[in-house]
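Ticket reopened. Same input as before:
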Amino acid sequence: MANGRKKYPSPVLAALVGVLLLSACAPSARKQIPNKALYNATVVTIKEGDTLPELAKKYLSDPSKSWIIADFNNQPSMASGQQIVVPLIPLGRGGLKTGGYQTVPVLRYKKFSKNQADPSAITRHTFEEQLAFLKKQEYHVITLDQLLDFLEFKDQIPPKSVAITIDDGWDSFLAIAYPVLKNYRFPATLFVQTDLVGKKDALSWPEIRHLSREGIDIQCRSKTYQDLKTLRIKNTFNQYLTALDNELTRSQADIKRELGKNCQYLAYPDGPINTLLTAFAQKHGFRAGFMSTGSSNPFYVDKYRVGRTIVSGDDDLEKYKRKLAIFEALALK
Amino acid sequence: MKLSGSKNWLDHLPLKAHRDVHQPISTSGYRFLRPLILAALYLTLLFYIVGCGGMSGFLQENSAARIITGASEKERHQNRLLSDMLELRAKEYEKSGEIYGALLCWQVLSILNPTDQDYAGRFQQLKYESQLSANRHFETGMAYFKKNLFKSARREFLIALRYNPDHPAALNYLKNKMFPEISDRYRVQKGDSLVNIAENVYQDPNKYYLIAVYNNLDVDQPLIAGKNLKLPVLEPGLALPLVDITLELKNARKLFLSQEYKKVLQSTAKVLSIDPSNGEAADLKNAALYQIAKIFRQQHKYLESLETLKKLDPRYKGVQKDVAAVKMLLKKQAEEKYRIGVNYFVNEEIDKAIEAWEKTLMLDPQHPKARQDIEKARRLLNKLKEVN
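Engineering reply: fixed in the latest deploy. New output:
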């Protein structure tokens, strides 16, 4: 420090620069191109054996986004030597067009039965028929993460998107619905009401862990089976608050303990939703709250009041089709 | 109109960017090393900002340029095919109003065909026009929003976002301003308590517990000035003090013992409005109604008594017997009124006679003579009027 200037050992600086350069060039630094990216697309020449999911995995970090490449290039398949463009930014957030905007039905199922249909139980045949319809009509069954990226205007989803949710955790899901879902490779979310686990006709924790390992998204559906109206009228205001808080924290804690995962999504118990409930869902860190009823959701829906379309055991295929509302017509020009 | 202020990818047209990012790094001695280190640090920073994607994009651009200059006839052919497809897609996207899709097509076309200025021109023009339209629709949306015309405002914000999906204000209004706020922030002032905050914010000191639960606070611990609290915003129905059923029933019992029966009805009505199946509230309500009917009867207000008895649950103990007894009393009262009417009639005071018989019918709608006599009296009155 004699001349007031600090001398840095050159090898240390060189090493520091080297490390910084290497880390800057690390591949993970650019898996997805954010909106501010300088480059928004890449031109790719198709090689022998290339598939759209592989290209989507390579350039968009997600094989399920192959539809983006197919859609942009207006071709469902590619030939070797052909040049295509891979968009690296989301182009259709919100699904906005001059004639209206995209909506996403979040289907809500509860119980399933082998043969006998009633309003709350779907037969295996009916469920299979519904999923076959989705497949044949090229609907994309999306995850709740994808749905939330759409609702938060972060990412685009396929124009014909639908999400599948199942409430409570009855054992008929594992026995009847899950094999059908697996057959079609459709993602689904099971909202578990944790006090029900292990009871008669309900799933056990080992079964839920098995489903989770198999790719079923396990999320919270409160702790007890009290509907919100009962919860409110049977208690004093302070008891109501405590009960509300408990419903959310305890079910979150149960799932964390049993599955080691943090629940991001909450399916509210039956009954009317109020701002207090949505506030508690936000307080406990849920990314979104799903109502027991409702209709298809545009991106601008309040994400703590995401509507769900009830699929009833009485629905025939025609009625089911009408429930799959994927576009809201409105002149947007 | 602010056109270039938004931080979106439209502002980063990179057609010729970063061609010189590769700088040779010399390591021949510290004296010469320092400026190089600084340059390297600068480059590193640049790499962090743009990511290596900038570099891969650059390489892609060069590879596209190589296609144009013509490494092979096959590549030129592929490039032409790709350009044709992109031009078609650009027009399709424009037609369906998907501006970002169209912009990307024109942008890629301008990179693939650097000598064709039409593509770059179309890109710039569309970018300019869409931003202009987005801003215009946002302003229109704001005008509607200020007039509380939310449906119209939403449509305008949606159009703004269709033109420019990176319009932050339009997105903010659509996602955050069209719904009730979930919670407000509150900074604790010196001397604040949960109760006085609850009283000021919710006009209900009992909501102190809500603040405590929502913020994980111990109700017995004093608040620390400067602490930030989150206060859930309650919708109108919830902001009103919610009926504490236990307390309200206690109050209703107390009122019943002090014979304030009308107040018992008010109190039980509150409970039954939120819990219609509450048995104790229903019992107290019936008991209060029974007592009110009894008081009317003692005051010879038999009609009021009967009306009150009719509001009672018909299965309530003794109510049918009381209804029968009051009906008998009403008949008796009706008969007295009838006789008064007859006296008026005999004394040729026909108007008064009709009035008395009408009262008779009010007390006993099934009276055997009153209705007939009223008709006769009215006919007589009409004849008298004709004679006069």
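The CA atoms of residues 31 and 147 of chain A lie 21 Å apart. Chain A has eleven helices and 15 strands. Please confirm and we'll close it.
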